[in-house]
Amino acid sequence: MFDMIHKVRSEVQETRQRFRDDLPISLKRAFSRELSSDEWTAMFKALGKTDWAALTNSMGVRCALEMISSSHSLDAEIRRLEGSIAVVEPRRFAKMQAKSRQLAHFMMTGEHGAQLLCNAEAIARMLGEKNFLLTSPPAHLVNDIDRLVTVYAIDLLDQRSRVTMANLIETQRDGVEFIISYLVGNRIDELAKIGTNQVARLNHYKGHIPSEALQGGSLTIASATEHAHLLSRGYKKVSDYEGSSADRMLGSRAYYFAPISGLAPFSQGALQTVHQTVSGIDPETGYSVGEIMGGRISEMNQVRLIERQIGSQRQTSENLRPIFDDNGKVTAYERTADVSKLTSLHRSTDLAQMIGVWRCRQMEELLAVKVNGELVDRLYEIWERDRKLGKQNEFVNIARLRDKDKDDSILVDAAKIIPPQTRDYIKWVFGRDDFWVRRDMVLDTFGKRQASIRDRFTDANFESLAVGILGNKAFPILVRSEKSIQDLSANVKNPIKWLLRGRRT
Questions:
Q1: Taking CA 30 as the corner, what is the angle to CA 24 and CA 35, rounded to the nearest 5 degrees?
Q2: Which of 182, 282, 287, 475 lies 20 to 30 Å from 200, alpha-carbon distance?
Q3: Distance separating alpha carbons of residues 221 and 238, to the nearest angstrom
Q4: Helix, strand or coil for residue 317?
Q5: Residue 7 has what pLDDT?
């Protein structure tokens, strides 16, 4: 078991090093000079956010780049695609065009609008449009809509980014095409994960590309009942969350921001906790992954009530995003955030860095499936061997743990982080309600959240003492101090890293 843990940690470290750290460096070296942050942002917008790679299969790289550098070529392609769609679906064309423009606007701005359809398949089927539903749209119609959304998005590109891209295409062609090769490859691999999964097909975000926060801040939308607790954890109320007038269960909610994370770092065990995703969603549920949300509505009576009322909702910047089941029926709604409230996260627009993050995520997901399967098989072998020797009392059944099991709170937390695909495999190997792990292997298997000053704030006496001495900002003050000590310790342990960091500053 020890050898397996060592092997897994080595593979995970190698994956992160190769793609998160090394790949962006390789991408940047493909250019004959160092590009500015504005140039990387221009490429992020023009090539990433527009899902520009969707055009290359039908028109090739050279013509696809003309969509950015030549407004005449772009206008001609828009007219061609609109005409093609109108011929196939004359009655539905106006609706399809409106939904395509809405999706393009979302891709470039993050503003959802009402009843957003997140990809070409959903638009072609006219999901949510009762009088316009199309059960089985032809593939060429879906492809035309997909490309139309992309050229609409390119048409929304700001002039500064357009000029910057035109200059890069002219003077740094080799570098741009090297970036393109990775974008196209990442997109192909991402969409391949959909397979026959209709939930993923109908709910995935077209053109989804990671854009990670550049600092360790935390933004959340929470109920008013959590106000006092959030303030004690260093959060500050930003503004009220108004939501949709069709959402009768919303209650009182608000945006809260903290410059530090409220979670302690997690020390990974052999089990890989990365969940499978497809273009920004959970493929099993269709729910968004990694987005700031005000919660979800999944109780069917409430969902059906919203369906009846959403057509007459008041205009809002905090819309409800419909989630569809595999038959195209609304099964839930997500409360989306006002994009103007997300600026405090300072998300990265460095295309090279985000391609690395994206590729790393894809590789980690593949690694997780392989590693977790091998781990479950090994744990089952150990359970079967020791059970036959009468050592059942040395094991704990992770599958039967519940939140009320306070004595095994670490194990309860461990059970919650098991990815759904791994859960299914555990049921297939061990049985429906069994997952026996030897107690002395639990931490090596699941890992644990690292000890932190944050944990002390679960003790009411400690929290009262800390607030009494340091005031209401005791939590962020102590967490920042802890992080500073940890950073200093890491630098002392690694003099080379310390020297390099000092040189950069």
A1: 75
A2: 182
A3: 10
A4: coil
A5: 79
